[in-house]
Every structure is written in C-alpha cells, then in structure tokens.
Model the fold of this input.
Amino acid sequence: MKNIWRIALSLTVVCVAAVFALAVVNSVTQKEIERRSEEELEKALQRIAPFAQEFKKWETLPEAQDSIKDLSILEVYEALQEGKREGLVFRVSTSGYGGPIILLVGISEEGKLTGMEVLEHQETPGLGSNIESADFLNQFIGKSLIDPFEINRDIEAISGATISTRAIVRACQGLASYWEEVREQ
Amino acid sequence: MKEFWDCFKNGIVGENPVLRLMIGLCSVLAVSVRLENCLFMGAAVIFVLTGSNLVISAIRNFVPNEVRIPIFIVVISTFTTIVDLVMKAYLPALSEALGVFIPLIVVNCIIMARAEAFASRKPVILTIADSLGMGVGYTLVIAAIGVVRELFGYGQFFYHQIFPSSYQGMMIMILPPGAFLLIGIYIALLNHFHRRDNL
Done:
C-alpha cells in the first residue's frame, strides 16, 4: 500500500513536467500556426476570386430550401471590390471515393465560376487525386451555372476516377441551386 | 567506446527496425512516396526516439515498475507533440504531406519497443547510441524505399524530373503495395549479404 504513493507521485511528476514542456512549445508556435492558416486561406481566396481585394465571411449560413444532394456548405465569403460585392466564394464539402472532398468555389455576380480549388481530399493517389490537377479544374473556370455540368458532354472525366469526377460535378450542380437561393442576400 | 559503436551499429544492420525487427512499418508504407517526406519523417523519428529514450533512461531508477508503460507513453507523446507543433509552425507544407503520421509516431512500435527493451534498462550513453542507431536504420531504409518509389512512381528525384515527361508513372509504386514489394526485396538482400550465424 505504501507503494501506491510512490506510483502516484512518479506519474504526477512526469505529467507535470510534460505539461510544462508542451506549454512552452505551444506558446512559441501557436501564433505562427494561426498566422499561417489565415495566410493560407487568404491566398486561396485570392486565387479563387482574383478580382477582389477584400473578403467578408458570412456569419450565418442561409439554410438551403431543398436539401442539396451530397453537398454541405461550410463557409461563404463575399468577394468585395472597392466595397462592392462582386461575387461569392463557397467552401463546400462533397463525398468522393475515399472520403470527403473539400472545395473552394468562386462564383461571380453573373453566375460564372471564377475559380475552383481542392483543399482536402482522400482520393486514390494517381487516379482520383488528379481532381487537384489544373487540367481538370480549368475546365470549370468560366463556365456558367446554367450549364448542364454533364460528364463527357461539357466536362471531361478523369479516366479511372469516375466517382471522384462525379463528386465535383455534383458539387457544382448543387452549388448552382444554392447560389440561386442566396444570391439576393 | 566500442560498446557505444556496437549499440549504434546494431540498429542499422543487426536489428534494423524495419528489415529485421519489422516494426513501425505503417509509416514506412504511408509516407515513402517521396524522398523528401522520407528524410523528414526519419528526422522526426530520430528526434522523438532519441529524446524520449534519453529521458526514459535518465529516470529509469525512479520509475515504479507498475506504471512504467504509462510514463513511457507520456514522455513519447510529449516529444511527438513538440515535433508536430514545430513542423506545423515552420514547415507547413511538409506537415501537410506527412499528415497524421507525425502524431502517430507516439504509437510507433520502434519507440515503444526500444524504450521497453533498451532505454529502461541501460545507461544513458548506450541508450543514445541505440536510439541513434535505430533512428538512422529506420531513416536509411525508408529513404531507400522513397528513392525507388519516387523514381518509378513519378519519374522524379527530389521533385526533379529524371525520366522524360512522357513517362507514365508506375501506379504500384505510388500505392502502398510498392513499398511492401521493396521491403521484401531489401530484406532478401540484407539476409543474403549479412547472414547472421545464429539464424
């Protein structure tokens, strides 16, 4: 029974030392990590909507009227040019072959896609992972939301990755109907 | 000094963690697609392995036998979290490429096994030799796998195109089976050239 105190004490000492070490490292790195992730987002937004100088995040997301299949809207940013809204940038999640695909999509006031970027995905390397490639994503840029977005009609699929391609295309179709609902806000 | 050297060498050839003990294979399969990832993964493992085993060896006489495993884990996870935070802050691109495999160093068998089998029984100096040897042994193997996978998978070496750009990457090298095949080949080679008498 005497032993129990020794056990408790040694565990406590090790844990306190660990907490102290981690607190020091955390206080040094935390600011840098936050700064980097903000910078990263700012840069990505800038690429998606190159015409805008400023981005304003929507605090509340309007609920989609009819639920959009397989698409969740995570964040919406207003792209402002000299204080005037010139477009919207959506951060959305759709389900791909290997897990969720997180996309950043810019839509101008006229309903044209100004940019699209894949932020996160777990698609098969070498096949589905080609959704990140510029060759694939560039086909979307400049398209209008009233376009059909049909694979092998106006969108060329990635060979060997039909499901991944379909996920992106479906996201665009879903986003088209959501954009129609929220554009006036 | 000879003992120090022997302990170091043991991790590279005699008991190479990947090719002989065959532990910690998960990260080897997962991150060895690019040579750069391999080298930084190796550096992270060397740091965590050496740091945590040094501490474990230094406190080995104060640690009650009953709670040695929880204490090892606290020490190892502290070092791993330090690496994770530092990489996120200063090497964000790499941190993204290595992803979850940096936090997973905590449960990497190499570190737990060496803490239990070596650091908790031996003096600090020998522990350093053993940890460095094991870490370098791990890094050499993962780098040897990474070179081949990057070359045949992408036709590149450190992101520089080596094969003509018309080269179509070998899919199997990009996927984990490629690493499995290479590990098998390396084990065969090591056994062929460095047969241990007691095998």
Remarks:
- Chain A has a mean pLDDT of 87.
- Chain A touches chain B at residues 3, 6-7, 10-11, 14-15, 18, 21-22, 25-26, 28-30, 32-33, 36, 40, 124-127 (CB under 8 Å).
- Chain A has two domains: 1-41, 54-182.
